[in-house]
Each structure stands twice: as structure tokens, then as C-alpha cells.
Amino acid sequence: MTTPSTTSLAVARVARERRGAGLARAAGDRLGVVGCIAASVLLVIALAAAFAPVVAPYDPDYPDLLASLSGPSPAHLLGADALGRDILSRLIWGARITLAGPGLVILIATVVGTLLALLAAWRGGRIDTAISWLLDVLFAVPGIVFGLIAVAIWGPSLITVVCGLAIAYVPYVARVVRGAALRERNMPYVSAAWLQGQSATGITFTQILPNVQPIVVAQAVSSLGFAVIDLAAVSFLGLGVQPPTADLGLMVKSGFDSVLRGQPTEAIAAGTLIVLIVWCVTVIGDRLTSSARSMR
Amino acid sequence: MTPNETRATGPATAGRAEPIVVARGLRKIFPGRAGDEPVIAVDDVSFELFPNECLAIVGESGSGKTTVARMLVGLETVTAGELAVRGESRAAGVKRLADRRRWAKEVQYVFQDPYSSLNGRQRIGDIVATSVALHAGDTATRRAVQRRALEILDSVGLDERFAAKHPHQLSGGQRQRVAIARALAADPAVIVLDEAVAALDVSIQAQILNLLADIRAAREVSYLFISHDLAVVNQISDRMIVMEQGRVVDGGRTAELLAEPVHPYTRSLRAAVPRPGWRPVRRERLAS
Amino acid sequence: MTDPLLRLDNVRAALRLRGGEQELLRGVSFTIGAGEALGLVGESGSGKSLTTRAITRMLDPAFRVTGDIAFEGASVPRMNAQALRRYRQRDVGMIFQDPRAHVNPVHRVGDFLTEALVRDRGVDRRDAERRAVELLDEVGVRTPEQRLRQYPHELSGGLLQRVMIASVLLAEPKLILADEPTTALDVTAQSDVMAILDEQRRARGLSLLFITHDLELAAACCDRLAVMYAGEIVEQGAHVYEAPRHPYTIELLGARPSIEHRVERLPVLRYDRAAHELLKAEAS
After folding, report:
1. Which chains touch C (3 or more CB pairs under 8 A)?
2. CDD domains from the xrefs (chain B) (predicted)?
3. What residues 225-254 of chain C have any CB closer than 8 A to a CB of chain B?
């Protein structure tokens, strides 16, 4: 019986019309100016990382011992590390793992977390209670601890840490998605599908999932920033990516020793790149989250 | 509903057919929230719905009219009493998917709010086609389903251009047409219309009421029309029952009941409707 | 002739969009005299709610507003912040469709009613409560002393709307803006609330701008009606309900089902934007 205010409807309609017009404009409306800058920076880093073999000036593992611990020079733009490896090339190669590792963590966590959340929201009752309990337990344990436990069991390697962290990130995705799915589940359009005789799986995947998808994406991107830091920390501790593979966390660590020997470039460059990546991801995640909320 | 028992049970097609829906002594009690008393939403409600008639359930908010409708389709469980569709009891609720699908072919539901009752991420054509596919059986081809969906959309006054649109591109009235099309896709014997025109503008309301009349002229279908609006009820329904605080207090042929209301509650409802020469009247002091 | 209480003169409001503007109020003019009730009637999207927001200068900043709104001769668009606050607090009282959205759910009814008096007018707390009790009694709330200690969620919609009326009357405004005050209520509660509003307004000589989609309700409670379509007033006066002249008003009245008799098919409005523009072009 209550009719929503026409004015707010008009404003919402205008916003929606704007959203509909072209991918670039849609992205602009969702991300805002700062978000677009963050997305562009991240895109540049990702492209450089993806095309590392082409972009990087040197083989990241080639030791030019003569250049060892040299500062920035025309030959080595950011200088070379203790073993004489080109720092810029190692940054570009390192960004590969620094993006791919957390990306894989979040991909696994999002798929598993979303499925658990949808199952909990649809079935309710005991299944919901059990899943919520499991999520709470996972929540109570810091993500990095899962990485360390995985390392303790299977030994240090990137894959081990990724699997461990993926479990740790499941509740971050699942909690938010469960809340959103519960809201959608009580909407009349879901009741309508149920009354039509659509199966539970059908309702979950054709009705509820498309409507919580913006929240899933926003939450995944937001969590990505934390995963980058966690994974870099594990590498820094020497438990993740193993030398000589180039990785930003590892570079901060090996750069540490160089700092004591008077050459801070490696640690600073790797540290800055991590911060930049995390900043970009966090900004994008923030914008996506608020636009997903405003779509309600 | 003793005083009007005889008036209430006489259907439009008196004595000629078996009722499709029978409710006897229907009760619904909601458990009270933390420490509160349980709420008796529906209390000893009985009625019958016959083929090809429109029965209105009239009442104010909190009268339990919507709860009755939701019990009929299984959106609420039945606490006590009998509720049967074509002789098959629905009081125990629905468990299996096959039952749910079979029941959907008998009773369909149109919600009040045409904004939240359509999935914003589905195209109009797909919303109707999903319903067609669910009830067409496995033999129907994709193309046949699509063609049928377009036919149904056309029958509610939406041409094929609408099939590719999303709900947010439609007006409230057009959305309610889609909701009606989705209900028709199951080819049901009964459509429950839960305040289905209440949220619409007067000009749109008239169109939807005409559409509902056209549908009844074209095919055999019964409406259970839930409404608080006596003028709308007068326009569309053959019979009506009046609910107050969970109980049926009055019932009979709509035209007779509204022309000369006898029951005090029906009279007060009738008196509160604005019409030419009407003045608002203040009731006694309000305690709740 | 003296100034009317409120005068709207060719008020336009345009929503700024990328690549242009969309005009949603297209030259609205009307007056409300002291003690007069005007019913502003229209369907959704006609601009009736925008008009009330323009009157209190509460339109979204995305709107560009032109034309003049004068309250007792003072131009509302040109008021400074202090004058505007005074105008909103003392001169105009607002009643909304959904009272629950306009009360703080964690404040007791008593605090809600007396807060403004105590804070802005320096009325003694006990005095303010005494006045609140009197007013609640006048708008037909039983045991008003108890109500003051209750929270909004403990009250029904009809009762809460009476509390809203009391809160508006407490501020002793000159004009009441009532935006669909009964749309969310049952018919019996609607009849009630309108009767109270009407009776209190007459007793105090207040002016009323009653915004509604219900022509019959507006006709019963107002001295004059103004019918809005697409951001314009198509017809206004005391005759509108009994003897409508504009085709839109005539069709709108005809489309509403009647409680007295049933028709085969309801007449459907043929009046649309195209007919509207055509009619305007012919008139000018």
C-alpha cells in the first residue's frame, strides 16, 4: 500500500539509466574517479606482470655479480640486488606471484564460501546453524595461522600456503554472502519462483545468485587486499615462495639484508609495490561494495 | 460467521459444481517473539471457492486475510483446520518438489508489490518462459516454450518487444501484467491476487481490473481476491467474506452485502470509504 | 486584497543530468489563503511530492529550481539559513505518509513531542509535557500520560499518525503540509485521521496543503482542489470534484471503481503525454 517516494524513484531511475550506458561509463559510475585511477594502476601492474617475459629488461634470475648492490643506473633502472640480479625485472616477475597467489586464494575462497552461504541461506535450520558455527570457528583463527599450519603439515611452498589461506578466507566471503542471500530469500520474487515449482537448485542459481553477485564480487575484491598482505608476510617469513623465485615478500626480506649494507632500493621498491597493489585493490573493493549496497 | 452462513455459501454458479477450494475451521497461530503471547492470526475460518468465480476476502491490516491466502499456496503452514484443493488436503504443507509443481498448476499467486515480486536480473521473456517450461513437461522444445511465453505476454497486453526488457525498464502496471502472465503460464484453476492492484495508480488500476475481467471471460479460472478496498472489490468480485481480527464476521454476494450491509463491522468499513458527499468521521478514542 | 499565506509562482524544478536537464515541475502556481485547505491531487510522478519539497526547500541539490515561493510575502528561495530554520520550525508543520520513518525509534513519544519546544523555544519541560498531554487528548488518544512513556513501535500506525498531528499542532504553525498522511492506513483509520486533521485545522484557523492521489478524499476535506499531471496543474478551483472541466480530471474520476455500482468495464484513461502537449499547444 505504501508507495515509494517518486522523487527517490526518479533519482534512482536516472542513476540506473546512467549505469546502463556502455561498459566504460558503467565502470565510471561504479568506481568513481579515484576508483578508476586505482583500477588503471592495477591494470598496468597486472599487464606488466602477465607479459613479464616481454616487459622485463633482464632475466630475473641472472646474476650480474659485477652489478651487485649497485644503485639505480641506466643499465639497471632500480639497481641490482646482493646477487647482482636486476631489481626492476624481479619486481615485474615478483608481481606475477604477488597477484596470482592471492588471486587463487580468493578465487577458491569465493567459490567455496558462496556455495556454503547459498546452501545455508536456502536450507536454513540445522544446516544453517552448522555452517554458521563452522564459519565462526574459522573466523576465530587468524588467516596467517592457517598458512603456517599448512606449511607445518606439507612443507613450505606457494601451493601449500595458498590452500591454507583459502580456507581462512572462506568465512570472510561466506558471512557477507549469507546475509545478502537471506535477504533475497525473503523477497517475493523468490517466493514466486518457489510457488512456480522451481527446484531449490534452480532458485538458488537462477534467482538468488544473480542478485547477490555484485556483493560476491565486491567482497572478493575487498578480501584480495588482505590476502596480498598475508601471502607477502608468509613469504617474508620464508615459508611461502622459495628462493630463487622472484616474489615481492621475499624481496622485502632479502632487501632487508641489503639495507644493512647500505643499499635500501630493493626493500623500498618491493614494499612500495605491495602497498600500491593493496591500495588499488582496497579502493576498488570499497567502491564496489558501496555501489552493490546502493543497488538494493 | 453464523449470521450469514446461508448468504456466504451460495456460489455464483449455485449448486452446479464442486468447490475447488474448501477451508474448514482454518487456524493459524504465530509463536510470540521472546516472551510475547502467541498471535492468533487466523481463527476458525471457513469458506469455499467455486470454479469460475471471484471470491474476495476483505479486511483491514491485521485481519488475517493475507495469511489465509499464504496458507492456501503453502507459504505458511496450517496450525489447525482443513484446507483442501480439489479434495486434496494442503494442511500438512508441501515437502516434495513434484507436489509443489503439481500444486502450482492448481493455484497461482500474484503479489502486491510488482517491484519486488519480479527478479530484476531476469528478462521479462525469461521470467514467463521459466514458468512455462516448469509446467510444459519434458517434451516441449525450447522454441515452443518461447513461443508460448510470447503468446501469454501478448494476452496480458505486452507485445514481443517487452520480452527482451528487464523489469526496471517497465512501469508498475506493466510489471503487474508480467506477474499475471507468470501466473497464467502455469494454466492454473485458481489465481490468488494479494492486494494486486493496491499499489497501482488509479489509471493503471482500472487497466489491470479490466485485464482480470478479460482473462476470466477468455478462460475458466477462479480468483481469490484479497483486498482492503471495497470499491475495487465491488467491481471485481461475485462473493465476499469480511475478516476482522482473524475471524470471518460477514459474507455473501458482494453487490447485496455492499448495498445493504447488516453486520456492524461491514457497515463501519463501508461508511469509511470516501464517495460523493462523504465527510470523514472520527471514531471513539483510540486505545491501541 | 492582502497577501495569501502561501503563493507559488511559476515554480519549475529541473533534474540536472549528464547531457541536459529533465524538467519535473513545469510551472506550478497556486495560492493558499489563511485558514484555507487546498488538496493537491495527482498520480505517481505527477510532481505533487516534489512541490511540497520545493515549498520547504528540501529538494535534492541535483534539482535546479526557478520561480518564486512566497510565505506571508517573504520569498522562501531567498531566505538565509536562520530565516529558513525559523520558517521550517515555526511556520510550517509536516505530516508524512510513513510516520515511522520520521520519528526516532529509540526516543519515547514524550521526548519526541516535547523536544522541539524545550530546545528551541525554551519552554519548561513540565509545561511542554502538560501541553503534549492536552493535545494528545484533543486528537483522541486515550490515556495520553501513558503514551508519553511508550516507544513508537508500541503504537499502531493510526495512533502514531495522531501523535504526528499532535506534534505538528504543538509547534503552532500557520500551514500544515500533509503528504499522503493516510495512504498507509486502513480506511477506518483514514477516516479518523482526516476527521481529526480537519477539525483541529478549522478550530485553530490553520491552512492545509493536502497531498494525495485520492480525489474523493481530497474533495471531502479541502476547500479547493488542484489536479497535477506531468509536473503541471491542469485544473484548480472549488468546482473540480463536482464539475470537472479538464479531460484528465474527468477521465481520472471515471476510472475509479465505485462502491455503489459495478460497470462492465472500467473506462481507461486515454489522456497521455501526447494528448497533454497537444491540448497545451491548442490552448496557447
Report:
1. A, B
2. ABC_NikE_OppD_transporters
3. 241, 251-252
Query: To probe the interface with A, which of B121, B126, B152 has the most A CB atoms within 10 Å?
Result: B121
Strands B80-85 and B54-59: unpaired
Q: Which CATH superfamily is domain C6-245 in?
A: P-loop containing nucleotide triphosphate hydrolases (3.40.50.300)
As a whole number of angstroms, the distance between CA C169 and CA B111 comes to 38
Q: Helices A248-260 and A265-294: crossing angle, nearest 10°? A: 140
B47 touches chain A (CB under 8 A): no
Top mean pLDDT of A247-256, B186-195, C113-122 is at B186-195
Angstrom distances, CA of residue C27 to CA of C10, C45, C147, C232, C245: 4, 15, 44, 6, 20
Q: What are the residue ranges of helices labelled H in chain C? A: 48-55, 81-86, 109-121, 125-138, 144-148, 157-170, 187-204, 215-221, 247-255, 273-283
Residue C176: helix, strand or coil by DSSP?
A: strand
Q: Determine the Cα–Cα distance for residues B103 and B190; give it in Å rounded to an integer.
A: 10
AA identity, residue C69: I
With 0-12 / 13-18 / 19 or more C-beta atoms within 10 angstroms meaning exposed / middle / buried, residue C73 is exposed
Closest CA to C98 of C171, C55, C160: C160
Question: Nearest-CA distance from B10 to chain A in Å?
Answer: 30
Write the pLDDT tens digit of every residue in B92-141.
877 788 888 889 999 999 999 988 999 999 999 999 999 999 988 777 78
Give yes or no for a contact between A291 and A113, defined as CB atoms under 8 angstroms apart.
no
Q: How many CB pairs under 8 A join A and C?
A: 34
B239 contacts B251 by C-beta, under 8 angstroms: yes
CATH number belonging to domain A33-67+74-294: 1.10.3720.10
Helices B97-106 + A188-196 axis angle, to 10: 100
Nearest-angstrom CA–CA distance, B166 and B181: 15
Residue B280 belongs to some domain of the structure = no
* Residue C231 · residue C23 · CB < 8 Å: yes
Neighbours of A265 (CB within 10 A): 21
Residue from the list B202, B207, B236 with its beta carbon closest to the beta carbon of C213: B202
For the stretch C178-235, pLDDT in tens is 999 998 888 888 998 999 999 999 999 999 999 999 999 999 999 999 999 999 999 9
Three-state SS string over B213-276 comes to HHHHHHCCCEEEEEECCHHHHHHHCCEEEEEECCEEEEEEEHHHHHHCCCCHHHHHHHHCCCCC
Domain that holds residue B169: 2-271
Q: Give SS3 for A209.
A: helix
Q: pLDDT band at A295, cuts 50/70/90? A: low
Cβ burial, residue C119 (10 Å; 0-12/13-18/19+) = exposed
Of C18, C50, C183, the CB nearest to A7: C50
Per this entry, what is the length of chain B?
288
Whole-number Å distance between alpha carbons of B25 and B23: 7
CATH of the domain at B74: 3.40.50.300
Beta bridge partners of C229: C232
Any idea which of A68-77, A246-255, B11-20, C39-48 has the lowest mean pLDDT?
B11-20
In A, which residues are within 8 Å of C18 by CB distance? 18
- B15: three-class secondary structure by DSSP: coil
Residues in Cβ contact with C112 at an 8 Å cutoff, skipping those fewer than 6 apart: C103, C104, C152, C163, C167
